[in-house]
Amino acid sequence: MPGSRYTVNVLARDTAGRVSWSSPPLTFATGGPATSTCTVRFTADNDWGNGYIGGVEITNNGTKPINGWTLTWTWPTGWQQVSSGWSATWEQVGTAVRVTPTDDNRQIAAGASVSAGFVGAYSGPNVLPTAFRLNGTVCATG
Questions:
Q1: Per-residue pLDDT of the chain (142 residues; tens, 9 = 90+)
Q2: CATH fold of 36-141
Q3: What is the dihedral of CA 113, 35, 42, 128, to 10 degrees?
Q4: 4: β partners
Q5: What does the alpha-carbon distance between residue 112 and residue 100 come to, in Å, rounded to a whole number?
Q6: HEC profile of 16-54
Q7: Measured distance CA(90)–CA(122) in Å, rounded
Q8: What's the distance, Cα to Cα, between the start and end of the chain in Å?
């Protein structure tokens, strides 16, 4: 799988906890997994300044069905959270997010996808996650 290209803005936090304005955009490229049995597409829509409607679409790139799954990621900042969600069970501890299926989307057939959504909240810049694991395996993004 080819590498990915990212654009980021850098933030600084002083000892009093105040966050700086973001830097001008910085663009860089990274390598991705050579092969991955999964792809995760993360979406953030309808942003209203301190929240948004988010979603994940998980695709099984493997040749066998996935029976039961757990998707995990870590928020890049401590001020982001999942407020509520649907089509899955959503749990957050600190910056770690864990998503598990409901009974109707436990299985992901080979070549198929499942989707789940959530209401996200934040109190600083909303920096989206870029690394996801499905059942412990690093997924491609896209």
A1: 344 556 677 777 888 888 877 776 665 545 445 578 999 999 999 999 999 999 999 999 999 999 999 999 999 999 999 999 999 999 999 999 999 999 888 999 999 999 999 999 999 999 999 999 999 999 999 8
A2: Immunoglobulin-like (2.60.40)
A3: 160
A4: 30
A5: 17
A6: CCCECCCCCCEEEEECCCCCCCEEEEEEEECCCCCEEEE
A7: 16
A8: 11
User: How far apart are alpha carbons 15 and 4 in whole angstroms?
Assistant: 34
DSSP bridge partners of 74: 96
Answer yes or no: are the C-beta atoms of 58 and 43 closer than 8 Å: no
Nearest partner of 84 among 106, 108, 52, judged by Cα: 52
Residue 56: CA atoms inside 13 Å, Cβ hemisphere, count? 35
N residues, the chain? 142
Structure tokens at 12: 């600084």
Buried-exposed string 88-123: b where 16+ CB fall within 10 A, e elsewhere: bebebeeeebebebeeeeeebeeeeebebbbbbebe
One-character DSSP codes across 80-136? EEEEEEESEEEEEETTEEEEEE-GGGSEE-TT-EEEEEEEEEESS--PPP---EETT
Strands 113-122 and 66-67: unpaired
